[in-house]
Amino acid sequence: MTAAADLYPDELRLLVDRELAELRFGEERSTDGIREAMRYSVLAGGKRVRPVLALATARAIGIDPARILPVALAVELIHTYSLIHDDLPAMDDDDLRRGRPTCHKAFGEDVAILAGDALYAEAFALLLGHQTGEPADVLAASARLATATGVDGMVGGQYLDVKDAMPNGVEGLRLLHALKTGRLIGASVECVLLATGAPAEQLVAYQAFAAELGVLFQVVDDILDVTQTAEELGKPQGSDERHGKRTYVSEFGLDGARDLARDAHAHARELLAAAAPAGDELARITDYIATRSS
Amino acid sequence: MTAAADLYPDELRLLVDRELAELRFGEERSTDGIREAMRYSVLAGGKRVRPVLALATARAIGIDPARILPVALAVELIHTYSLIHDDLPAMDDDDLRRGRPTCHKAFGEDVAILAGDALYAEAFALLLGHQTGEPADVLAASARLATATGVDGMVGGQYLDVKDAMPNGVEGLRLLHALKTGRLIGASVECVLLATGAPAEQLVAYQAFAAELGVLFQVVDDILDVTQTAEELGKPQGSDERHGKRTYVSEFGLDGARDLARDAHAHARELLAAAAPAGDELARITDYIATRSS
Questions:
Q1: Which residues are CB-neighbours of A10 under 8 A, at least 6 positions away?
Q2: A positions 75-114 inside 8 Å of B (CB)
Q3: pTM across the whole model
Q4: A125 interface with B at CB cutoff 8 Å
Q5: Which helix (H) or strand (E) holds B51?
């Protein structure tokens, strides 16, 4: 099998990195300190899976990725905000993220909370302030992004995680991840289709693919947390277990989780083939997510 | 002079309270705990100045207030989110708000951070998910709300406040309040005009009024912090001084601040008269803000 790193569409990632580096987040000099914290976290690197997914989705439906850059950047800003808040002392209390001190370690807890808040605002300012399609379509995409990141989405998922408030068993685990990571991964695909006015049946087919991709992403994440070194992960190894978190590994064992990952990978590829005959880059991202090592 | 309480358009406030009480914030049962914290803070009462301003602005330009309810509710949800985050231990560390334990005291710091995050998301979900005008106009209004609450708006203002990062002197104080409270008060008026496609010159005239109203609001707030009892305020008296905060009272003395309030009141009424010949309710809100006792 091709090494995971060779699969990833790095051209799209470089485009995302370049555009993120150019974001200025307003201009008032006195608030430079919060802007510095925002840029510190946004420019910490990473694979940019969500925005790259958005750009690859645009390609798959025959749309110039440059046109939906605001969607792509918005989902990455929101992902960054969620990491900053998840790392806070009152939440997961993590000191390292991508091999560097977490935002609150570098800038203090107050600034980290505000940097997260501000990134969410700037994500919407970016998405709403740029014409990526017909106004009614952009509205629909933005509304989807808001609900995907609210109580019945990303923030609700983080609530389930910190309070261990989901139902017992694997159904609870699925709900947790569907909300905490699945909804934003799904939105990274859905918002492109919504913003460009794609037909409803195409949206449904892509949604099915994105949902399975979200499952695959999380199962692999849980496996990597126990199999990779801290250096490879950029954060302490085994942190799920130390936090007493239920994961696909704790529920099914490592072999069981690997079986689940294999099934989710195959299923995601099937759903993708049905949704996107021209989805070559989406296929490569799917394979990368299944075989990545960090 | 008429007592402040008699001036306030309570009919509009009751409409806001009724609508806020009906908000469900999604439906996933497992996340009920975060929803409870959101409702606890949203339904804590208060004068609902921002949404009432929005509804009164609609009346002043001849539009049925019911049509712009999503705008009004969104600004109140965002205001509530900002109070929850401002009260956090890492920020102002306040235990009481409107005579009750603050959100983090009642539900824990983790849930309070997430309840604030979720309210911000739900505000956009509400505004973007309801057709209050032409899509292009709703987009413009939503974009304004996002920038008004980001780095160069509300969140940036809170940053200046907690880090005391604004320039010295009265200019710094004005900047602090223009960002921290002024931008959202302004957005409560501006977003109604934007969402309903009002002409640019009308928008500019209302903006001038709203900016002065924001100044008036803050000067009076600073005065009340030293002149009212804790019971009247619903929070400890003199908290600005205890937090070492620069205020209009610390900069100008109590008499100086009262002079400023009088000037801002007169100026706001002049600007209102120029912007809104039919702005009777806006005039009453302005007079209420100038003469209120809590």
A1: none
A2: 85, 88, 90-91, 108-111, 113-114
A3: 0.96
A4: yes
A5: helix B49-60
Cβ neighbours of residue B132 closer than 8 Å, sequence gap 6 or more = B67, B68, B69, B70, B71, B138, B141, B195, B196
Q: Per the CB < 8 Å rule, is A31 touching B159?
A: yes
Q: Which domain holds residue A130?
A: 4-291
Q: What is the spatial distance between Cα B83 and Cα B66, in angstroms, rounded to a whole number?
A: 26
Q: How far is A185 from chain B (nearest CA, A)?
A: 17
- Please indicate whether, in this complex, the C-beta atoms of A117 and B142 are within 8 angstroms of each other: no
B74, B123 in Cβ contact below 8 A? yes
Amino acid A279: pLDDT: 86
> Could you give the C-alpha distances from A78 to A244, B102, B129, B153, in angstroms and in order?
26, 26, 19, 18
**ipTM for the complex shown:** 0.96
Q: What is the pLDDT of residues B213-230, one digit of tens each?
A: 999 999 999 999 899 876
Residue of A nearest to B133 (CA): A136
- Residues B94-119: tens digit of each pLDDT: 999 988 999 999 999 999 999 999 99
* Overall number of domains in chain B: 1
Cβ neighbours, 10 Å, residue B282 = 26
CATH number of domain containing B249: 1.10.600.10
